[in-house]
Amino acid sequence: MSIALRQHIEKITPLTDQEFDYILSHFTSKKLKKHQFLIQEGDGVSNDYFVVKGLLKAYHVDSEGKEYIMQFAMEDWWISDYQAYFNHTKATLNIDCVEDVELLCLSLHNRDKLCADLHKIEHFFRRKSNMGYVALQRRILAMLNSNAKERYEQLLLQYPALFQRVPKTLIAAYLGVSRETLSRFYS
After folding, report:
1. Rounded to an integer, what distance in angstroms lies between the CA atom of residue 139 and that of residue 134?
2. In this structure, what CATH number is given to the domain that contains residue 37?
3. Nearest 5 degrees, angle CA 74-CA 129-CA 158?
4. Is residue 28 part of a domain?
5. Are 70 and 80 spatial neighbours (Cβ–Cβ below 8 Å)?
6. How many whole angstroms separate alpha carbon 100 and alpha carbon 107?
7. How many domains, the chain?
8. Which structural domain range is residue 85 located in?
9. Are 70 and 59 in contact (CB under 8 A)?
């Protein structure tokens, strides 16, 4: 599990063995089975999660029961309800496992401690946050300015492996279209 995290961090900043051992000591590990909840709406959220293995989805369910998928997270990605995590509030999202998962968990206290102790980690999380803001802006603009077929084609281009791992109903919920609309895009 730790090799994946080290490789992930070292895409942004190199680490000594001693630095990585210190970083890893601030994480705990967690395993969940397919369909188990990592976070449910209304829960307290004490961790950010690095995905070592598996696939999760973060979503919101409206008052009529319609599911809106905000994010998928597979290996080498992070996931949490960040509003709840950073603001110490209750979760407004649900996160559950699309596949069995192995995670590394980082509490906000430990994240803050690591950032205070190691400039490299503060730099790493700043860069990851910046990339996340860019991705979020791109996603919002796509929802506003692109039609469903364009959003589908962009998702397929960016994350082709997702289409092998995620049921079409979940892809449709992520794109904001019906399952029937999505099926028209498949050849």
Report:
1. 9
2. 2.60.120.10
3. 45
4. yes
5. no
6. 22
7. 1
8. 2-107
9. yes
